[in-house]
Amino acid sequence: MKYASYLLNIVLIGALGYVGYKFVYDGNVATGTEDRTAVILTAAEKAEVLGEMRGLLETSQAVLLAATEDRVAEIPDIVRPFGMAAVEQESITLAAKLPLDLKTMGYDAHRAMDALGEMAGNGASGDEIVATLAGAMSLCTSCHATYRFVAEEEMN
Ligand code: HEC
């Protein structure tokens, strides 16, 4: 009887461990259903667009900081490199690989940066800048929910 209950304990502990392991470990892959559209680029193009993305994030952060620290006058200079000026440097081959919908959202995000600079130049308040940036950032989130970039070199 005692022996049987030891065995039962071992089985139970094993089962609990297994469930715990599945829960924690498989948690990493539970979101494996990938329903975002993959946009296939070369590794260099992917590096270029991701670099542009990090620039957009840094710009958004710098704008928020300036707007909340009473430095609105600095915003036109902060956003300039990531307005439409950034798009003009993109190659035509890259542009051709981007779906129209993605391009439109991307251009709108860059235009939003220029618009923030213009607002700041026209004497907008920090609060108005923050509200406008918050609205524009829905472009970031909706595009991220829809697309991902895959380098053709990574596909084998
Ligand atoms: C037109 C679509 C689009 C817009 C708009 C967009 N992004 Fe992205 N961004 C992407 C895609 C696609 C990726 C890659 C995601 C992936 O492959 O999983 C990405 C990746 C990123 C990354 C990760 C960069 C890295 O080095 O891995 C950051 C940061 C980022 N975006 C910030 C932003 C911010 C901030 C905005 C808005 C100001 C923005 N993005 C707007 C499409 C977009």
Folded structure, characterized:
The protein has two domains: 1-33; 35-154, Up-down Bundle (Four Helix Bundle (Hemerythrin (Met), subunit A)), CATH 1.20.120. The protein has seven helices and two strands; from the N terminus they run H-E-H-H-H-H-H-H-E. The protein has helices at residues 2-26, 43-68, 75-79, 84-87, 92-97, 100-121, 126-146, and strands at residues 37-41, 147-151. It has a two-stranded parallel ribbon with strand order 1-2. Residues 22-32 have low confidence and may be disordered. The structure holds heme C. Residues 50, 53-54, 56-57, 60, 102, 105-106, 109, 137, 139-140, 143-144, 147-149 line the site of heme C.
Brief characterization of the structure:
The protein is mainly alpha-helical.
